[in-house]
Amino acid sequence: MPLEDAKSDIDAAFMRPDLRGYSFENAFAGATSFLRRRYSKDLNGVDLAITGVPFDQAVTHRAGTRFGPRAIREASSLMPFDPPHGWPTHPLEDMAIVDYGDLAFDYAKTADFPARLTHHIAGILAAGAGVITLGGDHYITLPILRAFAAKFGPLSVIHFDAHSDLWPDDDMSRIDHGTMMYKAVKAGYVDPTTSVQIGIRTTTEDYLGFNVITARELHERGHIWATARTREIVGARPTYLTFDIDALDPAYAPGTGTPVWGGLHSWQASAMLRDLAGINLVGGDVVEVSPPYDTTGATAIAGAHVAYELMCLYHWAKVRG
Q: For residue 6, is it within any domain?
């Protein structure tokens, strides 16, 4: 139901009468829920929950991603008025979607954080809803993958990033955004042979069996080839997509903790995400948006677009599944 009637005096983030449909409120006003979805902890009848994890205690350099979920939500207020461009699917109309809010945790008890996040995600999955997560630094993907693997078994992963996050670290109690994928493989949450890393442009000695498409290879061989190769690798397996915003070149996403030049152009990422339609996406996240390092807001805008594309991929998987 259109919400353009000003006399109704409602804020869709709190009082949306239906969990489906587009929003027509002022983009510059109201609560900053993702895509103007209703904030709710009630998952009854919900198809997809968007949740934020404002955690950045695992970074190796610049903190600030604790502000990422809020910035991504604010940026998304520009987007809930029209169907997603280029998609034959309309997730906002066809799925019941809520903004589940942020994970609550004690920032001073970092050791308790991983189990708390796994429990948070597992609870959403147990209710029968899918989940897209707004980060937060990239460590958060490890506890999330633990919850997904408990439900789906070892996952195929599509990992957009400048870094492999595969640096050796056999101390599972360490909380580090540069070693989380290494631990995910060692713990059996991820099958690296059916997974792919895209945009890599930093040195890694051992990729632990991951298929790798470097940023230079993508630039030289093209996004169409890279997408086809990715689809071939993951096939029809349950797939989780994690998008570190530093996969994009700093020209497009300067607001991140460890920027590396030579990255993906925003149009390349957009085209690849769109052309991955049909993969068996079971969940995903966008991480490492650090608003303090981008006064323009461009990085958060990119993060919001990535999250919307993940919603479309998830919906298309359900429609075609």
A: no
* Residue 14 vs residues 30, 37, 99, 236: alpha-carbon distances, Å: 10, 8, 10, 37
Residue 94: which domain range?
A: 44-320
Per residue in 131-140, pLDDT (tens digit) is 999 999 999 9
User: Burial code of 117-127, b = ≥16 C-beta within 10 A, e = fewer?
Assistant: bbebbbbbbee
Q: Does 182 reside within a domain? A: yes
| Backbone angles phi and psi of 159, in degrees to 5 | -120, 100
Kindly state the tokens that stand for 12.
């869709």
Helix, strand or coil, per DSSP, at residue 272: helix
User: Residue 232 is part of a domain; what is its CATH number?
Assistant: 3.40.800.10
pLDDT at 21 (0 to 100): 83
| Residue 211 CB coordination number (10 Å) | 17
Identify the residue whose tokens are 């910035």. Answer: 71
22 within some domain:
no
| Residue ranges of the chain whose pLDDT lies below 50 | 1-7
CA dihedral 53, 59, 64, 70 (to 10 degrees): -10
Q: For Cα atoms 24, 26, 29, give the angle at the middle one, nearest 5 degrees.
A: 135
Alpha helix positions (H), the chain: 12-15, 68-76, 91-94, 113-126, 141-152, 180-186, 215-221, 223-234, 266-275, 298-320
Instruction: Give kind and range of the element (H or E) at residue 213.
Output: strand 211-214
Number of structural domains found in the chain: 1
Nearest to 26 by CA among 14, 15, 11, 40: 11
Q: How many whole angstroms separate alpha carbon 148 and alpha carbon 125? A: 8
Residue 321 pLDDT: 62
First to last CA, the chain: 28
Tell me the two tokens of residue 186: 């060692």
pTM for the full predicted model: 0.94
Q: What per-residue confidence (pLDDT) applies to 2?
A: 47
Per the domain annotation, does 222 fall within a domain?
yes
